[in-house]
Amino acid sequence: MSKFKGILDSHKRPTPAESQAKAKTKGKRSDPDYGQVSAYIRKETYRNVKIALLQEAEKRDFSDLVEALLSEWLSNQ
User: Fold this and answer.
1) How far apart are CA 69 and CA 2, in angstroms?
2) What's the pTM value of the predicted model, to 2 decimals?
3) Are 54 and 61 in contact (CB under 8 A)?
């Protein structure tokens, strides 16, 4: 028995079933329901929005905020 067996055993490769369980969820980039758009906003506005999003209890990203604001705007049209 090798003196390194314990180290090797602790770094075993996961089985395919374990790998599938740890697979990442599908991101927006690869989701066909989403498309990338761009807009010009002031740097200070973007910086303040990022800070506000980080301070929210409900963590959401910039694209989720833009989606919510645009959907709300559309529903008021």
Assistant:
1) 61
2) 0.61
3) no
